[in-house]
Amino acid sequence: MSRAETGPLTRLGVPLVVAGAAIVVGYLFSVGLDGYFVYLGMSAIVAGIALLGLGVVTGSAGMVSLCQLTFAAVGAWVVSGLNRIGAPGGFLVWLVCGGIAAGLVGVLVGLPALRLRGINLAVVTLGLAAAADLTLVQIQFPGTVDGVSVDRPEAFSDDRNYFWLGTIVLTVCCLLVHFLRKTRWGSGWQAVAFSERGTAAAGASVRTSKLSAFAVSAALGGVAGGLLTGQVGLAFPASFTAMQSLALYVLAIMSGAHLIDMAVFGAVLWVAVPELLKRWGVPQDWGFVVFGLLGTHALTTGGNLGTAVRELWRRRSKGAAGVELSAPPAEVDMPPPGEPVLVVRDLSVSFGEVKALAGVNLSVPSNGVLGVIGPNGAGKSTLVDIISGFLPQATGSVELDGRPLNGLSPTRRARAGLRRTFQQDRVPAGLTVGAYVRFVARRRLSSSEIDEALEFFGCPPAKTPLRRVDVGARRLVEVVGHLLARPKVLLLDEPAAGLPHEEHVALGLRLRQVPARFGVSVLLIEHDLDLVRSVCDTITVLDFGQVLASGPQAEVLANPDVLKAYMGETELL
Ligand SMILES: Nc1ncnc2c1ncn2[C@@H]1O[C@H](COP(=O)(O)OP(=O)(O)OP(=O)(O)O)[C@@H](O)[C@H]1O
Fold first, then answer.
1. Can you give the residue ranges of the ABC transporter domain (predicted)?
2. pTM score, two decimals?
3. Which of 88, 127, 377, 419 is most buried per CB count within 10 Å?
4. pLDDT-based confidence at 253, cuts 50/70/90?
5. In the chain, what percentage of residues exceed pLDDT 90?
6. How many angstroms is it from 116 CA to the middle of ligand 1?
7. CB distance 493 to ligand 1 below 6 Å
8. Residue nearest to atom 1 of ligand 1 (CA)
9. Residue 548 in contact with residue 562, Cβ under 8 Å?
10. For residue 137, how many other CB atoms are within 10 A of its CB?
């Protein structure tokens, strides 16, 4: 099977062809539809752009934002204001200005998101939307008092042409989101939604990921608001209420608006549900009840329409992809271990009464693999957390290649060349294998470099979506990403967890070659002694947070204290 990612022609060509087709269909609708449907269609376009934005912040980056129409109001305000003063450039330039202004407001609103999550963030953003509601009623939009309506571009001045312009703007916004999701920002959104710790361990900034998601989402909201102002001529606060923001959020969650087609589908629902209710003689506000029920279903089941349909399709097409390690790796020349590259001195940390680690010293030689073993609760994961900067309250010192790391955040340690993997799955399901590896590696990689590394660890091809990869293989994809970052040291926290036992030694043969093949030294935490034996020349044993023994493998595994403390003599021998 070819391991290559999709080629540049497919990556660029297919979206551009689809976009071209959408613009043509938009034109055909603009000339062929009844005038009332053109009006409804324009409303759907505005909702679609706002939903696309919500898809970025909620669906991709996993944050709650209940003030999308407040951002739309900012866009509407800027367009109305620039129109009112007759600013140069015309409508399209004002629209861009509205988007930028809303994006900047989005960054400000995103600042609390750096500390708040879930219900707290919901309260803050909904509070902001409610406050904006009241303020807009007080101050009014520019031009409403004196009745100066917004000038559309000359070529798109009638409703039919304006609808076509809306289709073009929506298409451009869809392309923008599509391509942004393929950049580091986009990967960062997915990563931060799944695990902030995993994001930081990849040397990516959690702050940048969150703020960029809010900025892009708000900017799209601003464009939607500006476009709405051009549609109706004058902006009114009633179009941007907190209640509507809430309903839009529910719709985004229910439809799965992080998927571009579902954002468009959600927009159709946004317009069609109230319209159908009107035709059936039911009050239109009941539309909120319908969205509320659908949203409650989505939130309680944790799914959404778009993902459910795709899952159904995938289940019909293929099963989960796993690891294939049966063939032994080719021999390589192994350089002898050198001077210590990671030196850890006197590490201690307590959790209340529990002394998780007390005065631990160890060092990882360059070109070497140090094994750290110990019974459950011995402090192994705590050790990795401290070294990688996730437990800043710990005492002691960590030096990497002679550089003290104390006081550095996990992101900075990762960028300094100290990487780690996690015992729990921290790999975001929304990316492909290749996109995730590029994100974690943080450097320019050729496709062949990625393919070779994936193949060496028996991982699925780069183009495989991670949601189709089983948990054992995902852990190894994580290892590959960090190795391709070429750090000085990689801390591996039970990399074999999730693999069938018969694959453990096969993985060990590969881990042993890591210093030679990737130029990376390794600290390996593992429960499986067969694997540790096959990889590590030197071993440190932890017990109750202290070093019980340390030194060459044979010596340590024969130590009577280790035999007694670790697992029982017979199992070790
Ligand atoms: N956040 C925490 N709060 C309180 N106690 C903790 C916390 N993290 C770890 N501990 C305690 O610290 C000790 C060491 O835990 P740690 O997870 O590092 O052990 P481990 O050797 O990695 O175990 P395992 O092999 O089961 O993963 C345990 O007693 C654990 O209960």
1. 342-569
2. 0.82
3. 419
4. confident
5. 52
6. 26
7. no
8. 351
9. yes
10. 12
**Ligand 1 atom 31 nearest Cα:** 377
Taking the centre of ligand 1 as the mean of its atom positions, its distance from the CA of residue 424, in whole angstroms, is 14
Ligand 1 centroid vs 545 CA: distance in angstroms? 9
Distance 384 CA to ligand 1 centre (A): 11
Q: Find out whether the beta carbon of 546 lies less than 6 Å from any atom of ligand 1.
A: no
- State if residue 380 touches ligand 1 by the CB under 6 angstroms criterion: yes
| 295-347 pLDDT per residue, tens | 777 777 767 777 777 777 766 656 677 778 777 788 888 888 889 999 999 99
Distance 379 CA to ligand 1 centre (A): 6
pLDDT digits (tens, 9 = 90+) for 79-112: 999 999 989 989 999 999 999 999 999 999 888 8
Residue that has been written with the tokens 């759907």 in this structure: 44
Burial 328-362 (b: 16+ CB within 10 A, else e): eeeeeeeeebeebbbbbeebbbeeeeeebbbebeb
Establish whether residue 409 lines the binding site of ligand 1, counting it when its CB lies within 6 angstroms of any ligand atom: no
The lowest-confidence range among 166-175, 205-214, 296-305 is: 296-305
HSE-CB for 107 with a 13 A CA cutoff: 8
- The ipTM value here is 0.94
Sort strands 521-525 and 369-373 into parallel, antiparallel or unpaired: parallel
